[in-house]
Design goal:
It is a single chain. By secondary structure, this protein is mainly beta. It folds into six domains: 129 residues, Glucose Permease (Domain IIA) (Distorted Sandwich); 181 residues, no CATH class; 115 residues, Sandwich (Immunoglobulin-like); 85 residues, Immunoglobulin-like; 116 residues, Chondroitinase Ac, Chain A, domain 3 (Sandwich); 92 residues, Immunoglobulin-like (Sandwich), CATH 2.60.40.1220. The protein is built from four helices and 62 strands.
Length: 762
């Protein structure tokens, strides 16, 4: 077996198992049960030559990519091709027309359609839904267990964090004492989700294919289970929800989600916790007292928890990876005062009452300022001073202005006061971090020993925006250490939204805000920062964050006009927050004309296609030579479009957001008659006819765009797009004398190439 049931294909699931034929064709293919031939399909694309048998059980078996059918079926196919005047046909038969007995030869394996030589073996139930053929007890000897390449943990809400940031993280398992483990605990807070990149093999075969079953355990309790047994063709697009579409679009790989997204109606899930397999960490001390360790979807208590991911093939061969989660939100640590001494500095720290300091670490540097780079830290000795903790009143915290919001909302509680001693001669800058009784890490606190030196470099602040599915992450970098956390505010229509910032370095902070909180055509971001010397800097920028909903759909437009993308109601799984930028007025590509429209988000899947429309320039005299195109790395992929001469627009459906532009194609296809060669005298009266044909830009709409004629008569020739060949084998002797072979190819933009070859038959 080289491919398994349910594995990933572009925009769909694989509906069969693929049987290896060792790069050879012509193996006999047998009927698995009594039944009758229901359908015969021949196409240069997809399944190639395919046979559909309706079994006496009401199920259907599909054999695809055949080299040829049995003799009787082959005659039926050729008669139908002659009748339709086309190679590509679909022939349906009634129940009594062509009965088949179990064990009868129905065809021969091949490589027609797409792919290398193999047999695609597909089974469908009585409702025409693909089912896993391995449930029919076909004998496959398999002792090979799946392989786990990597796991990922992603924040699923704006206030969720993984290892101290609002971004997904990936982890490579390590083999230790015969077990795959993640060596270090993964720090998590808020709502998070697991995903795993894994593959399976069968014994003696190197081909990689999908894993049959996935499980997630937390503290020994099952939180998630899925296995591929059955699906419906109408659910093919849900492949983008089963796999982590965000990670795939960012070239991390194909990760199987160990949780179910909203909109995913597949019936492959046999166990889900109350959060659909996701893990929810208790956000407050009060919440964690109500947590249920068996039900991580209701709130996981603070501290260490064991997780195990299980991958299993159909024969029960298993591979697991184990690790730990350190659950709980990072707590804030504030330096309230410091007292430099001869060889050490005494710090007064405050922290929330729910956290008891159990361990403290410190790093120091003699650098005063270092641009936007990370300081060169050195580990310093630090210890807790022996004293009784003092509780302070937190009500003196600065109140929020009216009509503003803070994400996440602070929890007002009493603060605990601690004294910490840090040893370090000549240190100018201190970084202090701590762990509490649960093992949870603090947000680092920073302190600067100012000796009156004045920085010579100017003070400025820079902001980087990163959009995720449901939140916006900001990274704020300053050229000097900051006196206080920077203030982040969004002006959204008539209101303001504030974002809470988290220190990473004395000159670097991160923040996150839900996209839903700042959804608008136009949003203004203002970041204000003050350096330790009192200098101020402000960053201000304007961007779009238009919200489109599944219930109403909507349209994304370029601000200057000329381009739009329309979403019909129900085209989206969840709200989409979009923006359009003109990346370049012109691109250095000979075939791309006009501006390049950069449309975001490019990492959110659609339920249904959207409609892209771009205006073409007035200077274009022949719009039939135009199409739309999307960037794929350094390539531009052509997409055929409808032309509207009245609005001067090109329109096409798109299944994802990309960088879009207009492409012209004035280049005719490449067409070469390879045999018989011109003016040659053939050795046989049935000379094979072979042409090389390819179009490098717009391509061919269908096989009907490629025609071979012999002495004026249309030939029913086979087109092989993968090998770029058109093939025809005469079925009867040609008359002796001169014959004329003409070949014609027309691409989607109407560019035509014609060739002619005369040859002599003896």
């Amino acid at each position: 077996m080289t491919s398994s049931f349910g594995e990933s294909r572009p925009r769909r699931f694989h509906a069969a198992i693929d049987i290896k034929t060792w790069n050879r064709t012509g193996y006999k293919v047998f009927a698995t049960r009594d039944g009758y031939v229901e359908r015969i399909s021949v196409s240069p694309f997809g399944y190639g030559r395919a046979l559909y048998l309706r079994l006496d059980t009401g199920e259907t078996v599909v054999y695809a990519h055949l080299e040829r059918f049995n003799e009787r079926l082959q005659e039926i196919v050729e008669r139908e091709q002659e009748r339709q005047g086309a190679y590509r046909i679909e022939k349906y038969l009634s129940a009594g027309e062509l009965p088949v007995q179990q064990g009868a030869i129905v065809g021969y394996s091949g490589q027609s359609g797409i792919g290398v030589p193999h047999l695609h073996f597909e089974m469908r139930d009585a409702q025409n839904r693909p089912i896993n053929p391995l449930h029919k007890n076909f004998a496959l000897s398999d002792k090979a267990a799946p392989s786990i390449k990597e796991i990922a943990v992603s924040p699923l809400a704006a206030d969720a964090m993984v290892d101290g940031d609002f971004v997904p993280r990936s982890y490579n398992p390590v083999l230790l004492n015969g077990r795959l483990i993640i060596p270090k605990p993964i720090r998590v807070s808020g709502k998070i989700g697991f995903a795993v990149e894994a593959f399976d093999r069968t014994t003696g075969v190197n081909n990689q294919f999908a894993v049959y079953r996935y499980q997630l355990f937390l503290d020994g309790s099952l939180q998630f289970q899925s296995q591929f047994d059955r699906f419906s063709y109408s659910e093919n697009r849900l492949i983008d929800l089963v796999q982590d579409y965000y990670l795939m679009r960012h070239d991390w790989g194909r990760f199987h989600k160990l949780y179910r997204e909203a909109g995913n109606t597949l019936e492959i899930y046999s166990h889900l916790n109350s959060a659909e397999g996701a893990i929810l960490i208790a956000g407050t001390e009060n919440e964690q007292t109500k947590s249920d360790e068996r039900e991580a979807g209701r709130g996981l208590s603070w501290g260490l928890h064991d997780f195990m991911i299980v991958t299993e093939d159909f024969d029960g061969n298993r591979t697991t990876v184990e690790g730990q989660l350190l659950a709980g939100p990072a707590f804030e640590l504030q330096v309230t005062s410091l007292e430099p001494q001869a060889t050490r500095v005494l710090f007064n720290l405050s922290l929330p009452r729910a956290h008891e300091l159990k361990h403290v670490t410190a790093e120091t540097t003699a650098q005063r300022w270092f641009g936007t780079r990370r300081p060169a830290w050195r580990t310093a000795q630090a210890e807790l001073a022996a004293h009784e903790a003092t509780l302070l009143d937190a009500q003196a915290l600065t109140p929020l202005p009216q009509d503003s919001a803070l994400y996440p909302q602070p929890v007002f509680a009493s603060l605990r006061n601690e004294k910490v001693i840090v040893y370090g001669n000549g240190a100018k800058l201190f970084r202090i971090a701590a762990r509490d009784q649960h093992g949870i890490f603090s947000i680092p606190a920073f302190a600067l020993v100012h000796d009156g030196a004045v920085p010579s470099q100017p003070f400025h602040v820079e902001v980087q925006k990163d959009f995720y599915t449901h939140h916006l992450r900001l990274e704020i970098a300053a050229s000097l250490p900051l006196l206080e956390p920077p203030r982040v505010n969004f002006r959204v229509e008539e209101r303001e939204v504030a974002a809470n910032v988290i220190a990473q370095e004395p000159n670097r902070y991160i923040a996150a805000v839900p996209l839903a909180a700042i959804g608008a055509d136009s949003v203004v971001l203002v970041v204000t920062a003050k350096s330790f010397s009192g200098a101020q800097s402000q960053w201000e920028e304007k961007f779009g964050n238009l919200v489109l909903t599944p219930e109403r759909g909507g349209t994304l437009r370029a601000a200057a006009g000329g381009m739009q993308i329309r979403f019909e109601p129900s085209a989206l799984y969840w709200p989409l927050y979009g923006r359009v930028e003109i990346k370049a007025q012109r691109v250095h590509h000979p075939l791309v004309i006009g501006p390049v429209y950069h449309v975001e988000p490019q990492d959110v899947p659609f339920r249904e296609s959207a409609v892209l429309e771009i205006n073409y320039p007035d200077s274009v005299s022949d719009p039939s030579k135009l199409g739309l195109c999307a960037r794929d790395g350094e390539r531009w992929n052509f997409k055929a479009a409808k032309h509207n001469p009245f609005t001067r627009t090109l329109t096409a459906s798109v299944s994802s957001l990309e960088d879009f532009a207009i492409m012209k194609d004035e280049e005719p296809p490449v067409l070469v008659i390879q045999s018989p060669s011109p003016n040659v005298r053939t050795k046989t009266r049935r000379p094979p006819i072979r042409c090389h044909v390819v179009d490098h830009i717009s391509g061919f709409e269908s096989q009907r765009d490629i025609q071979l004629r012999l002495d004026g008569k249309l030939l029913i020739a086979e087109y092989d797009p993968e090998r770029e060949l058109v093939l025809y084998q005469p079925k009867a002797d040609l008359t002796p004398g001169t014959h004329v072979l003409t070949a014609r190819a027309e691409d989607q933009c109407g560019n035509v190439t014609e060739r002619e070859a005369r040859f002599v038959v003896p």
